[in-house]
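Session log. Operator J.P. requested a structure for one protein chain; no other inputs attached. Running the standard single-chain path with token output.
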Amino acid sequence: MGGGSAVGRVLRDRTAGRCLAGVVVSGFGTSAMWLTAGIWVKSLTGSNSLAALTVFALWAPVLAGPALGALADRMDRKVLLVRGNLVMACLLLPLVPVDSGSAVWLVFAVLVLHGAGGVVLDAAESALVAGAVPASLRADFNGLRMTANEGMKLVAPLAGAGLYVRFGGPAVALLAATTCALAALVFARLPAGSPLRDPAPAGSRRDELAAGLRRIGASPVLRPLVAAGAATMLLAGVNGAVTFAYVDEVLGRAPAYAGVLYAVQGAGSVAVGLLAGPLLRRLPERVFAAGGIALFALRVGARAVASDAVALGASAVIGFGLPCVLVAAATAVQRETPDAVLGRTAATAGSLMTAPNAVALALGAGLVAVADVRVLTASAGAAGVLAAVALAAGARRRGAHV
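Structure written below.
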């Protein structure tokens, strides 16, 4: 079955289509706010460091993924998606009167709360999809969700920046609040969910929060995929940290050229999202993930070559290969996890795979000051190839024992 018919089947499915629409609507506002928050803080304070911290403020709640994901196991997922988006819309409204550096703390407080809400809603959406979308459509949905997210990252920041230049930060906050409210309306039209079983395990609160981690660790399917995803995102963080040095020292280009490379990379991610479903129906998840990691790693290594053509091609392939393990892991989590702990497991898997990216961004920023960019990219590429080989070899061993 081709990719086009798969897209059509997802959009015709009532739950999948509306979930995807909600992701697109809310993602537009969030992506616009993501870029504009840094510009806004920079203009209010004149501080590059505070501007850079806006991204961290949005990302930091991912570290609390297991605890936040537990909320998706205690509430009706549809109700949580509706009410959660309405709460996030209300959270953004206090930013409207912010017009001086003395109130910049409010921007950071809202960003942290917005990031936490995003973790909860992502877990709720993943759990709802696993229960309401046919298994044959889940890989297509997860791929299209990746396409929607990456597509919003290409379009929304430009719209947000333009809106900021014309009307200022409060206008972007209103845009993001409006998209959250619209997403709530979309999710309100989802079919009613089935009642949740009591998700609380018999152990302590700590045991309850660790349920997702235990589930991943005990699963021969989830454990290698999540581990490979974490390793890949670690290398992606190093690659991201050296981007500006690569543009300057290897390509001899102005810093703005990094924007071109990021746009090309985003286009690659949009493409793989459309193809992920059909490919996952033909390939085992670990093989699909390993192939994506290998593509990503080889093209990261190719950044040691001083060529614009190589740079653009590498960015497109990096964008295509990097999401493969994330889509494969998300699909496996939805299939392999019992409903009662699905929210926590999805959020825990997300935390385990994304936290290394932030660590590597900091690590890479230090390494680029003391090591040649070509050495760093070649090393990251080699490490990625090893990770891909290990994942593929595990898939062969698993197949041999089936």
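Operator note: Confidence is low (pLDDT under 50) at residues 197-202.
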